[in-house]
Amino acid sequence: MRDEIRSCPVFHGRERKLAEWGHRQTPAKETHKRSLAAHALLHLWPCVCLSLSSSSSKHLLLPSISFEDHQSICTPSQQPRGQADTMALDQYTYVFAIGTFFAMLDAYNNGANDVANAWATSVSSRSITYRQAMIFGTIFEMLGAITVGARTAETIKNGIIPNSAFNDNAGVQMLAFTCALAAASTWVMWCTRHSAHVSSTYSLISAVAGVGVATAGADKVQWGWNKGKGLGAIFAGLGMAPAISGCFGAIIFMLIKLVVHVRKNPVPWAVWTSPFFFLIAGTVCTLSIVYKGSPNLGLNKKPSWYIAAVTMGTGGGLAVVAALFFVPFVHAKVVKKDYTLKWWHFIQGPLLFKRPAPPDAEKAKVPNYAVVQDDEEDETLPTHESPKSSESGDEPLKKDTAVEIPREKTLAAAEIGEGPTYKQLQAEGEAKLHAKLMKKRGPLGWAMRTLRDNPMGPGQVYELHNMKIILKRIPAMIVVGALYGLHYDIHAAQTGVAGTPEGDRMKRVYGAAKKYPNEVEHTYSFVQIITACTASFAHGANDIGNSVGPWAVIYSAWSTGDAAAAKAPVPVWQLAVLSATISLGLITYGYNIMKVMGNKITYHSPSRGSSMEMGAAITVLVFSQFSLPVSTSMCITGATVGVGLCNGTLKAVNFQRVGLLVFSWIMTIPIAGTLGGVLMGLFLNAPHF
């Protein structure tokens, strides 16, 4: 077909026009002046020439030009250089818009899935609430993304598919990474909806590899190590990251156990050794920023003495500040049990040592950090309302809002098939939660009542009466979607229903874990705030590259008209937008993943959670230094298992849940890769006029 087109005398002299059509890079003035008819004629010109040159053909043929034909006809040497090279691909604005949508959807799913898993440790340990996790997550995800995130983005966009595979075709490059984002975000969204935890990192990497195979063939994809940026290096992290983070987490927890937990008077030891965590957190985070730091901030060319001085100064300085302000505050709060102390009193520093404790300080209650199943305290059907949330001052439920049935009778009936099933028991528990939410004041209570009072009527959705109902329900659905997670009892969902197979299994796991005094755990609840923020910083530094790497390619190709250069910078505004979208995913839908993580794997407490998060954070930041996109989810899961095994028995870990997680990680690779490849193949080889 290509030879027939080139041999046609009518085609002579039009080759330059066809090249411009192939690259979609005509000068701006010509693009705006060209009419729709002329644009269509230019697109059909090869077909017309082929029809005229073929005497045996009686009909106008509309062949499909493959990517190989497109490459050979529209070579870079035939394209006019100069001004056209820097022109935006205005005709592909819709591709940029679609790519932007899927990049933000991928970031949203990343927040709802990966970030939720990262913060599940802190929430499961009861060190911070879900609302506090949202605030800290938003701040430190953005800091990590802007300061370090561009480095892993370079690997995502350049290390898997070389730019030469696109033969300088910016349009195909835009389409390729748009398909990769669409495939990865769709898969992770489906998994998040069904509370199936997967790795957003490996989902996108697999989708990019699949797109590369569909675009230029399997031989063009960097399957090997490729100086630490190929698929071989990336997938090596699939086994390395959980193992390394598990070792780090276990080492840190064993240090806590030997230095603090085995002491006769462990509380002072816990208080005075807490600056150690600030030292590690400050050193690791600072090193990740200044050593090969963000090129956007000019931190990638600093001398060695500068890196050493800033790293040691920041880590040591933070430890000194912790000793001067954090230690006196925690000492007054935990040792003296000064319940009148507010968080802003930490500014008094050493003066807090002289602050007298209240007369009734010994009667002050230390928060209970023990993991208990909801039914151990309430022998009725389960609710998703935690003891903390029950203190909100809302009107208590009336007796008729839930049917109170003795737990033993209900479960016995369920086992012999005469009563409700396990899923029905869970549904009844959620019904009790919804009944309580309807009693609340404020936007969420209004939204829940609106949805209850405006059910969909009979008939089709598009009928007039149903359309009116939908208009009433839409604002309420938006409010519920934004605020529902704030009131969801994650702890009750993690421990399972007592008496059921899952509940009995979790009870055995919790029974195999060593319990430590609440006063010690209360001390580490303050420490876990810094470790959680460090883990969030690490996630922003690593996982933001998932979404922003392909999006940066799409934006660069669209705005310049050239295939994105290997060293094309990642704009800071893209890092900021996607980090904010990640936080939105955590805020609105993170609870759906948190409820199947944390205590669902092993017994959590603040001292354990601090070790898990610090071990995972160190691993993620180390991998980020080598520009290796590693799954934060795998790191925190590996650290969780490592700390759980420190109990000295395999029974302290729920390996059924761990097995499901590993299975979902493995299945993500072929599924996401196939989705990306099929989607790209369909678009690239689809019939067209």
From TrEMBL:
It is a multi-pass membrane protein. This is Phosphate transporter. The chain crosses the membrane at residues 133-150, 170-190, 202-218, 230-255, 267-291, 303-327, 575-594, 658-684. One of its GO terms (biological process) is phosphate ion transmembrane transport. Belongs to the inorganic phosphate transporter (PiT) (TC 2.A.20) family. Pfam families: PHO4 (PF01384). It is found in: Membrane. It comes from the Eukaryota. The keyword Transmembrane helix applies. Residues 375-403 are annotated as: Disordered. GO terms for molecular function: phosphate transmembrane transporter activity. Its main location: membrane. Sodium-phosphate symporter. Keywords: Membrane, Phosphate transport, Transmembrane, Transmembrane helix, Transport.
